[in-house]
Design brief:
It is a multi-pass membrane protein. It is found in: Cell membrane. This is NCS2 family permease. It comes from Bacillus songklensis. The protein is mainly α. It has one domain. The protein contains 18 helices and 4 strands.
């Protein structure tokens, strides 16, 4: 096994890789509880229960998708990169597709599955590189930052720190509610842990907040911590129930958003983690095809189990910082996700005030890409800014992406830089114009 994972060549050993795998798991374990809460729309009160996803089934789907992706990434691509259902895409799945557009969650899962098929085909044919080159780097950064701002906005709403205001649409709460104070406490604790660079700071922040909530009677104390694995049948295979409803104009924009966001997220994460681990050779990623293929199949497998898009996690850098260099650390992370299946009773203590700080902090981390945008060039600043600001204001990641891709060719042509715009960008411009005219409701 040491030879297969190239321990000697990479200068690592079992102890280091195991510690790295545990570190990565702790850094991303929050998704086990945030994802079920998000996909089941736990923070939305006036929503029919029959239209919600089963949180326990989503918990199992989340763990299984993460285990599959992480273990396969470690064994096939041999990279210390873990996978799990992605933040941002789960918010788009729940708040935009299900809540705003009124799409049944079964159909949304089918859309995720189709996007995984597209991702797989493009990876096999090598078209991936062409599409990456066609999308301007400024919009790639803007999409990531915009999703971060959107997630933070959702977190502030879930915590009821930001509330409805008839006069100004939104406003600040009066801070008299105990749950609001609990969320603020959790946010402060998580910020302290992150500033101190504590590995797994977001996860530990959730645990401390949950314990505080139980101490002050805001959260019910669970009767047990370990139990048998919950039933995944409520979501397993549901993606195939409404597969025929995916091939509509309405779902085209949804699938396109699933694909675009995961496409760039997966590629960017792979490069970032590999670079930190010193695994890039001549600025290229060895075995990139295998890594992206794992990511693509994980999307489909996750959809079959019953969760939104599964993707590579930037939190893998925590494991790399702990010394992880081989795929063995990713395998360790995947095995820990399987063990986590027996801790479903903890779902009961993961309430909105507990998950809100995690959403807010993840949003902060994602928004860091704002600094990579050249704001001095107005023709670049306009589409980038509209991409970011439209996502939270329209409560739609898809709308933000569409607005940005519409403005980019316009400002570039007016600036006299039309030749720098890739033909695919013009195609996307037309597609999104048609999307607003004929598809978006």
């Amino acid at each position: 096994m040491r030879k297969y994972f190239q321990f000697n060549e990479l200068g690592t050993n079992y102890r280091t890789e195991i510690i790295a795998g545990i570190t990565t798991f702790l850094s991303m374990a929050y998704i086990l509880f945030v994802n079920p809460f998000t996909l089941s729309l736990g923070s939305v009160q006036d929503f029919p229960d029959e239209l919600r996803m089963d949180p326990e089934a989503v918990f199992v789907a989340t763990a299984l998708a993460a285990a599959y992706g992480s273990i396969l990434m470690g064994i096939l691509a041999k990279y210390p990169i873990a996978l799990a259902p992605g933040m941002g895409l789960n918010a788009f799945f729940a708040y935009t597709v299900i809540l705003t557009m009124g799409v049944p969650w079964q159909t949304a899962l089918a859309g995720v599955f189709i996007s995984g098929i597209i991702f797989t085909i493009l990876t096999l044919t090598g078209v991936r590189e062409k599409i990456i080159d066609a999308i301007p780097i400024e919009l790639k950064y803007a999409v990531g930052a915009g999703i971060g701002i959107f997630i933070t906005f959702v977190g502030l709403q879930n915590a009821k720190i930001i509330v409805d205001n008839p006069a100004t649409l939104v406003g600040l709460t009066d801070f008299k509610d105990g749950n609001v104070l609990l969320a603020i406490f959790g946010l402060v604790v998580t910020i302290i842990l992150m500033v101190k660079k504590v590995n797994g700071g977001i996860f530990y922040g959730m645990l401390i907040t949950a314990v505080a909530g139980m101490i002050f009677g805001l959260i019910e104390v669970p009767t047990k911590i370990v139990s048998s694995v919950p039933d995944v049948s409520p979501t397993f295979g549901a993606a195939f129930e409404n597969l025929d409803q995916v091939f509509t104009l309405k779902m085209l924009g949804v699938i396109l958003t699933f694909f675009i966001v995961d496409f760039f997220d997966a590629t960017g994460t792979l490069l970032a983690v590999a670079n930190q681990a010193g695994l890039l050779k001549n600025n290229k990623l060895p075995r990139a095809g295998k890594a992206l293929m794992v990511d693509a199949t994980a999307v489909m497998v996750g959809a079959v189990f019953g969760t939104s898009t599964t993707t590579s996690y930037i939190e893998s850098t925590a494991g790399v910082a702990a010394g992880g260099r081989s795929g063995f650390s990713a395998v360790v992370t995947g095995v820990l996700f399987l063990l986590a299946l027996f801790f479903s009773p903890l779902l009961g203590v993961i309430t909105a005030p507990v998950t809100a700080p995690a959403l807010i902090i993840v949003g902060v981390l994602m928004a860091s890409s704002i600094g990579e945008i050249d704001w001095k060039k107005f023709e670049v600043a306009v589409p980038a800014f509209f991409t970011m600001v439209t996502m939270p204001l329209s409560y739609s990641i898809a709308t933000g992406i569409a607005i940005g891709f519409m403005f980019y060719p316009i400002t570039m042509v007016l600036k006299g830089r039309a030749k720098e715009v890739h033909p695919i960008s013009y195609v996307l411009f037309v597609i999104f114009i048609l999307y607003f005219i004929f598809i978006r409701e």
